[in-house]
Amino acid sequence: MNAVRFQVADTVVVLTVEYPPVNALSAAVRAGLGQALAAARDDPAVAAVVIMGGGSTFIAGADITEFGTEKSKALPSLSDLQETLEAFPKPTVAAIHGTALGGGFELALTCHARVAAASAKVGLPEVNLGILPGAGGTQRPPRLVGAATAIDLITSGRHVGAAEACTLGMIDAVIDGLPDEAIAFARDLAARGELPQPVILRDDKVAGTDPEVFAAARRTTAKKARGKIAPMAVIDCIEAACTLPPAEGLAFETRKFRELYASDQRAALMHYFFAEREARRVPGLAAQPRTIRSAAVIGAGTMGGGIAMVFANAGIPVHLADISEEALARGLGTIRKNYETSVCRGSLAQDKADQALALISTATDYADFAQADIVVEAAFERMDIKRDIFTRLDAVMRPGAVLATNTSSLDIDEIAAATSRPGDVVGVHFFSPANVMKLQENIRGKLTSDETVATVMALGKTLGKNVVLARNCDGFIGNRMLQYYTGEAEFLLEQGATPEQIDRVAEQFGMPMGPIAMRDMSGLDVAMMVREARRATLPPGERFSPVVERLVERGRLGMKAGKGFYQYEGRNRRPDPETIEIIEQVSRDPGIERRNFTDEEIEFRLFAPLVNEGSKELEDGTAMRAGDIDVAWVNGYGFPAHKGGPMFWGEKVGLARIHEAAVEAAQRNGPRWGPGKVLERLAREGKGWADA
Ligand code: 3HC
Fold first, then answer.
1. Catalytic status, residue 126
2. pTM
3. Nearest-atom index, ligand 1, CA of 78
């Protein structure tokens, strides 16, 4: 089948790219466009050309699946097509619906004009893949919108709605009827006789750009991009667009694109892109998801309120339930404030906030939401409370409703056993703040039905979350690993590292907050409680560093007490000599030798145990794929996507090294830290997770 349909509407030719799912610029599409453009150019009866996408979208970019393959080198290249378009003797119009992203929008930028449906979005999201828009996407946009706006658009990779794109000058018109209005637009252009100047030759928006624009952008981007190299390269290219002649600017962009393409960050981000999509798939699951049109959330605290917002933001009416009217009023008040903040910040339009708020109603009686399609329990994290709630839900909820718990670590099977319908019970674990964090960790109990699993996996997409599916076990995918990261940070303290060094190394690595500061934020008393519960289930020989206990004894409960590992003024942390004294005492008691650590040692010691525990999750089926673990850690814990996630990082540093570290950790910390069988085998055979 030809990837480009050629249709004639009177004197205008409409070229429709038909290459599902997203009309990416594959070799087949490029060949189809090349042939069709040549035919349209050479036919004297053709006065103008419209290029559009078939199905639900325009062209979503270069074909990422062909990167690095022979197909990506097949001619015509994207830049060949762009040259053809820029030299085209008849008007060409890109008619955009759905999304015009990356190479798709870059192709449109070489047409004489761009028109878009009101619902369409355009953007250059390449930085999310660790590259930059390398088909003139850093050279042409500044010529339409100016350097400062181009920097904002391309370093963020954000999708811009048609109305804003038109105001900015990225497109020429917002139209109603596609393709008819686009055809009329093209015909009008042809009637004018004179072709608009190609974007690459316009310079009124770039000439004389103040160099401070670039200096300022470098300062803010260095902070915002936190170690990502692509956004900084984008600024270099946009500066080149403003200071060099077009051909030299384009050549500069090509060089930068190649550098980024060869980088580890590109490999990591592309791995992550596909992992995120793969994580939605459950091999062997044939059941159809149930439809979710209404929801209820039990518990109007921070978590429950956030989850109610998630449903409302997706347009799903939701009941927020709690035991008292006061609790509900408090919860609703917080939700209102959250929406107000978003509106003030400009990240949400007032009418969208109003629409979402109108979808949230309150209830103290379960009977009020008995007809809901799903109920998510987000009550206090105690088994007796959860079991009681599920027994009551079982009594009132309509048959077929999904009964979900937002527990972060409790046993799903024990909760399900409190009902007469364990097939409908499932874990749906959101991360705090639920309306912001992108992870939805679904947990399958022993008796959870395929239909329930299919429903909550599909629900993730509706809610705009990235989903992973975990098997029921202590801590599921993410929290099960977390204890090794924070635990190793405390062992490092005993051995001589300081809280500031550990946090600095983790934050330079790309974590939003270091493990020690994170402990302070969630509360050291809470950490102690969790640890005590865990200690009871552990075999002899397992060590916990007593540093948290010693700090709690001195009233250092964390940020909320103004002191924990650090001392605080508001949220600002400062090192505290008392903490160092306490840590030194903790080292002295059992005679642990203190020494200096390099930053590299600390980085490896912090992250290697995550990889080892991740390998054990693959071994016992807690996670289906290494990529799922990466998705969980990037979205739930802020692991930098440009490092690909912990499992990708582990494979990069070498599984043999990770294995060796686990053997050592077991000697130091206890047998639980020892290497898993899968890791042992892969390290021995020199293989990666694909062979797990
Ligand atoms: N190439 C190849 N496949 C792509 C693709 C692309 N550019 N973009 C998406 N796909 C595939 C996905 O892998 C997925 O495949 P699967 O069903 O087998 O998993 C399928 O299309 C649907 O994608 P989504 O599940 O993400 O569907 P959504 O509807 O949620 O989102 C989208 C659609 C907004 C287009 C989103 O897929 C997206 O953001 N894609 C990436 C766009 C992008 O980064 N473009 C730039 C590419 S690089 C480039 O153009 C270089 C140039 O500057 C030289």
1. yes
2. 0.95
3. 54
